[in-house]
Amino acid sequence: MTITDPHAVMIAHDRWANGQMYEACKKLSDEQFNQRFEMGEGSLHDNLVHNLGAMRGWTDVLNEVPNRTRLEESTHTLDEIIALHESVSADFEKAVYRQPFDTIIHRDRGERSYSFPVGGILSHVMTHSMHHRAQCLNMLRHLQVESLGGLPMSSVMEWMLVGETQ
Question: Which residues contact residue 144 at a Cβ distance below 8 angstroms, ignoring those fewer than 6 apart?
């Protein structure tokens, strides 16, 4: 069955695009994976962990539970990041679909109180992830991964063209 619902498209594409990024990173040495750059969170490792940490943090907001310890507070191997991605992404999807997209979630952060629609949280998390994957693509260009098989596909158009909507 073809995925056509925009919300499901965003979630499925995000999983696929992250998977493409992880596959590209498997070809790198640990030194390359952790190499510092003056963009994003500073390295491929840090960008990928930040994306997962943000998704997990927003899952806590959607579930209206206290925030867990940030994933960014520790280092992870690529294999650990891939394993985390499976559970973090599944938990986020479950939290997103737990209630209607127009449900307003209230959250206190420090001295401030915020209100977010569930659909807005989904859109933010997906575009945030895309933003940091674009930084990862730029880091991979700097590492000259073209010699290792090229840059990973990442756009929604590429996802559709390779038939991942099925």
Answer: none
Which alpha helices (DSSP H) does the chain contain, by range?
6-25, 30-33, 44-63, 78-96, 118-142, 156-161
pLDDT tens sequence across 148-164: 678 899 999 999 899 87
How far the first Cα of the chain sits from its last, in Å, is 6
**Global pTM exceeds 0.85:** yes
What is the C-alpha to C-alpha distance for residues 16 and 42, in angstroms, rounded to an integer? 23
- Which amino acid is residue 22, in one-letter code? Y
Specify the DSSP class assigned to residue 28.
Answer: S
**Number of neighbouring beta carbons within 10 Å of residue 132:** 20
Checking if the pLDDT of 145 tops 90, the result is no
The confidence score (pLDDT) of residue 148 equals 65
Q: Is the pLDDT confidence value at 40 over 90?
A: yes
Q: What domains sit in the chain, N to C, each tagged with a CATH number?
A: 6-161 (1.20.120.450)
